[in-house]
Amino acid sequence: MDLKERYKTLLDKINQYNSGEKGITRVAFTNEEQACTQAFMRMCMDAGMAVRMDQFGNVIARREGRKKLPPVLMGSHLDTVYQGGKYDGSVGVTAALEVVRRLNDKGIVTDHPIEIISFACEESSRFGVSTLGSKAMAGLFDKKKLRHLKDRNGITLEEAMALCALEIDAAEEASRRGEPIKAFIEMHIEQGPVLEKENKKIGIVTGIAAPVRYSIKIIGSPSHSGTTPMNMRKDALLGASEIALELEKTALKEQRYGTVATVGVLEVASGAMNVVPGEVEIKVDIRGTSIESRSRVVDHLHETIQLVKRKRGLEIIVQELSNEEPVLLSEEIIETTERICRKKNIPYKKMPSGAGHDAMNMMKLCPTGMIFVPSANGLSHHPDEFTELDDILIGIDVLEEIILHYASENSIIE
């Protein structure tokens, strides 16, 4: 079996774990995601790795090195959004395993140990907060704040973890703070159109935008649509709409800084065509690599909420779901990746990531780098998400070279 066919078989095996009929649904801490995780652990053991699961459910597969030195880490995540695609997260985890298989094929023993990490609960789709597994590993997990997060069925994070034999009170024990780690590299699909549009094969990520997320509940007064005069209504949906439109205006003013804002969820309680909406919940995501620009959007959001509250006579309850800082990735790893791409004559582009990734938390533990491979039409978090196998293999070639470089005792990261 050639390398291309071997990798395709690996990716297909991962994506057979799916609870949906459309796209891939393998949501964190569900039967499908746990079965996939167990299958991946077996695959790593078959590659000769020592495999364990930490207290949050992160998988750590270790290939020993020649010497007792800090490990070099690579990986991503296996969970998906609802009705997502085959490539987001899965490519990074399977690419890491393919690198180890290649080293085995060549009989290469590195100086430093190499670890593959499959992070738990990277996606925010179930509980509204992203990268929980890498937060736990980086010592950033706040169990008091996060344990009561609920999914669309009212199941809390604590309950979902318990069903997977994981205790949220033990999550802090997953922290690797203070442990010597040489580097972490994450490979991922771009999830945007830039590489394909510019005909580049590798994106070298310079920094990662981080989100501030809110759940905003707007409470008015439900009333009959035919008997309530327009000037006597307390319409929660119109209040929510006004907030959403003003948020868009504010974000458009910050375009030069790459800041974006999205209202991705709007739920009307007890909605009916002939009832003035009395309660609406919206969920807001504001992100960017410039803290100052993002802060201006957040400040204006709060000002708008107060204005709408007074103007329409509504009660508005704001809950902050997460507030993460943008991160700049290792300059030394960026430069090393550039040298590798130039050596291999691979067209590349240095670029920021607008999406959050586990790499942003790993930067708290060690020098961190990230590479992108192209996404067809920039599509992601969608059943039609697609990346050419040949493009993934180019990414694996680069990832292998990066790992070999940093797993050598003579490589130094300042």
UniProtKB/TrEMBL annotation:
Q: Peptidase M20 dimerisation domain: from which residue to which, for each copy?
A: 214-306
Q: Name one GO molecular function term.
A: metal ion binding
**Pfam families linked to this entry:** M20_dimer, Peptidase_M20
Task: Give the highest taxon in the source lineage.
Answer: Bacteria
**For this protein, what does the record note about how its cofactor is bound?**
Binds 2 Zn(2+) ions per subunit.
Q: Where does allantoate bind?
A: R213, N274, R287
What is the similarity comment for this entry? Answer: Belongs to the peptidase M20 family.
Protein name in UniProt: Zn-dependent hydrolase
Which species is this UniProt entry from?
Ureibacillus terrenus
